[in-house]
Amino acid sequence: MLTWKYDKNKLTTEEYIGNKILAQKTSEKGYEAIIKEYVYIDSLEVEKTIKLIPEIWGKIKGIGIDLGGGVGCISSTLAKKQDVEKIFCIELVEDVVKLCQPIVKNQILNQKHEKVISVVGDYNFLELPNNSVDFAISWDAMHHSQDPVITFQECKRVLKENGIFIIIDRAHNNSTPDKEIERMLNIIYDKEFLQRNYRKLDKKLTRKENGEHEYRFSEWKNYFNKSGFNLISSTIIKTKTEDNLKMQNDDRIKEIFTDYELGAFGNRKIAFVLTPQKKLTINSKRE
To answer: For FRET with 104, which of 35, 92, 212, 228 sits at 20 to 30 Å CA-CA?
Structure first.
C-alpha cells in the first residue's frame, strides 16, 4: 500500500466519515457484503458494461489509474486483462483501502492481486510523473470532486499523449432547472438510507452535505474542454426499467439498455471517453 499527498481537511467531511463506517462494517462480513452495500455492482457486470463501449476495452492496457477507486472492484476487473501491467487504485479513505481492497482484490484476481496497487491518496495530487499513464478510469467518483477542472487537469498531466480517460458517472438533461438540481442536493436522507449505511437514525444529513454534486451534460462537457480533454464519445447505459424506458436525454446521446442492475442513481450511467488535447507545435500552427 502506498500513501500519497492528500487534503487532510477532507478527513472530517461527512462523505469520508460515512465511507469509513461502511468500510468497517462491510469488511467484517466479506466480499459479498462489500459489493452489495458499497459498490452496488459486481465485477462481471462491470466488465459487461465497459465492453458495451467499443472505444474502451481494447485501449485498456499498460499502466492505469483508477480515480476514487473505492474498494477496488473496478481496478481488479480491469487488471484481469493480460495486457494491463498494473493499476494504481487511488482512494482517500484509509479504512476502505486497508480493510476492503485486499478482500476484493483477492476475490477477483487471486494470485494476481499485486497488479492493483492500493493507494491512500487524493485524485487531485497524483504522485506520478508527467506522461506516465496509459489509461485512467473513474466509476461514480468524479461527481464527488469539489473542482472537476482541477481533478481532470491533474489526470491529464499524468496521461500519455495517446492515453484515454474513461468516466462512468451520471448526468442530467441540459433542460434541468437550477431549482431541480438544488432540490436533489437538499434531499435529507431517510432512515432506510441511514440504517443501510450504519449511521445514527436521528442524523440529519443532506445529499449536498454528503459530498454529492449534480451536473448536466453541458456542464460535464465544459469541464472536459477547460481541462484540456477532447470528448471522443458519450454513451448512456441504463438498466431496462419502466422509468428508464420513459426517460429520454436531450443531448442526442446514444442509449443502451441492460438486463442487469447498474446500481445507484436509478440504475443509469453515462460513459464519457476522453483523450488529451494535443499541444500545437510551431509548425502545426503555421499549417
So the answer is: 212
Number of domains in the chain: 1
Return d(Cα 75, Cα 100) in angstroms, integer: 13
pLDDT recorded at residue 286: 38
Find, among 86, 78, 95, the residue nearest to 23 by Cα. Answer: 95
Q: Which domain holds residue 79?
A: 2-286
- Residue whose C-alpha is closest to residue 41's, from 69, 18, 65, 73: 73
CATH of the domain at 126: 3.40.50.150
pLDDT in tens, 269-283: 999 999 999 875 545
Q: Are 98 and 105 in contact (CB under 8 A)?
A: no
CB atoms within 10 A of CB 83: 9
Between CA 58 and CA 55 the distance in angstroms is 7
pTM of the model: 0.95
The model's confidence at residue 162, banded by pLDDT at 50, 70 and 90, is very high
Q: What's the Cα-to-Cα distance from 64 to each of 50, 78, 102, 212, rounded to whole Å?
A: 15, 9, 18, 26
